Amino acid sequence: MNIMIVGVGGQGTLLASRILGRVATKSGYDVKISEVHGMSQRGGSVVTYVKYGEKIYSPIIGEGEADIILAFELLEAYRALPYLKKGGTMIVNTQRMDPMPVITGAAKYPDNIEEKLARSVDLITADALAAAAEAGNIRAANVVLIGLLAKSTEVEKDVWLDTIRRTVPPRFLEVNLKAFELGYGM
Predict the structure, then answer these.
(1) CATH, range 2-184
(2) Closest to 97 measured CA to CA, from 136, 128, 143
(3) What percent of the chain has pLDDT over 90?
(4) Domain locations in the chain?
(5) Partner residues linked to 70 by β-bridges
(6) Helices (H), the chain
(7) CB 68 within 8 A of CB 122
(8) Under a CB-based contact definition with an 8 Å cutoff, are residues 37 and 17 in contact?
(9) pTM (predicted TM-score)
(10) pLDDT band for position 12 (50/70/90)?
(11) Which residues pair with residue 71 across a beta bridge?
């Protein structure tokens, strides 16, 4: 299984990849994770590859190889589209975060991204930011998306919850468990 997680710095893509990798390991798979940081501390692109299976030799996912793309932001989903394989699924947070060239007026944010994606791929969208706010902290949008992903897998819900308990710092645990449940219930 090849899963590509895309977002911008500060959205929690790295925590999401750790949770996913640990769930796959608990499920008995060989797991490889690779993190690609752009200008992540300045809101730039962050891409994480999570590959798992019987035996994985490389963590890198090439164009047309991702079974699932988990996108934390619309433009990042659009940028990652070439990596999704035919018949793959894209799970996208409907949040829009303008990159610096758009903020400065040097570029224009593409129009109708969600509609363009829906015409191209099996698309699942969610307002993960609103669900995270409902859980108690907008920074938990990443775990809302993990919940949405989790319900489409064969891994039992308890394995996901146990992994979250073991991965998320205690002071953020309650919010993240609520966020997961909200995503799982979408």
Answers:
(1) 3.40.920.10
(2) 128
(3) 79
(4) 2-184
(5) 5, 91
(6) 13-26, 74-80, 100-103, 113-120, 128-135, 141-150, 157-167, 170-184
(7) no
(8) no
(9) 0.92
(10) confident
(11) 6, 92
